[in-house]
Amino acid sequence: MERTLSIIKPDAVAKGVIGKILDRFESNGLRIAATKKLQLSRADAEAFYAVHAERPFFNDLVDFMISGPVVVSVLEGENAMQKNRDLMGATNPKEAEAGTIRADFAENIDANAVHGSDSVENAANEIAFFFAEREIS
Ligand code: RTP
Ligand code: MG
């Protein structure tokens, strides 16, 4: 069964919609194989988003990701990576389809409620970044 990594970002945690977002996953065939709430350090966020290090929005992205606690989860199911991306909607919530997580819970392109791995290969690396294998079941 395919696995992907989800992060409920600080804006959505602060809004109190952790449960509503996790329900979207479970209601759409994605099993929660692992989950935890944590505060990222600056070093954590810089390492996690290292692929974006040269992008103009990198510093704002890191500042935002450490602005409060996040909830990281391993989602498991058929086509889990793409299914999660479909449930999330477009990066910019103004462009996100109605009924997607970002359309319903995100403020703007920076505070956009959720992260999801964008390939199965990246998913494996992102899962290993946050979870030991014994924490996933
Ligand atoms: P994510 O990685 O968080 O799941 O989002 P994504 O794949 O939809 O978007 P990505 O291109 O990977 O960008 C990562 C995060 O950086 C912020 N961003 N800001 N101001 C901008 O033009 C801009 N572009 C991206 C977003 O918060 C995005 O989720
Ligand atoms: Mg991305």
UniProtKB/TrEMBL annotation:
PROSITE patterns: NDPK (PS00469), NDPK_LIKE (PS51374). Its cofactor is Mg(2+). The keyword Metal-binding applies. InterPro entries: NDK-like_dom, NDK-like_dom_sf, Nucleoside_diP_kinase, Nucleoside_diP_kinase_AS. One of its GO terms (cellular component) is cytoplasm. ATP binds at K9, F57, R85, T91, R102, N112. GO terms for molecular function: ATP binding; metal ion binding; nucleoside diphosphate kinase activity. It holds the Pfam family NDK. Keywords: ATP-binding, Cytoplasm, Kinase, Magnesium, Metal-binding, Nucleotide metabolism, Nucleotide-binding, Phosphoprotein, Transferase. Residues 1-137 form the Nucleoside diphosphate kinase-like domain. It is found in: Cytoplasm. The keyword Amino-acid biosynthesis does not apply. The active site is at H115 (pros-phosphohistidine intermediate). One of its GO terms (biological process) is GTP biosynthetic process. Homotetramer. Major role in the synthesis of nucleoside triphosphates other than ATP. The ATP gamma phosphate is transferred to the NDP beta phosphate via a ping-pong mechanism, using a phosphorylated active-site intermediate. PANTHER family: NUCLEOSIDE DIPHOSPHATE KINASE (PTHR46161), NUCLEOSIDE DIPHOSPHATE KINASE DDB_G0292928-RELATED (PTHR46161:SF3). HAMAP family: NDP_kinase. This is Nucleoside diphosphate kinase. It comes from Sulfurimonas sediminis.
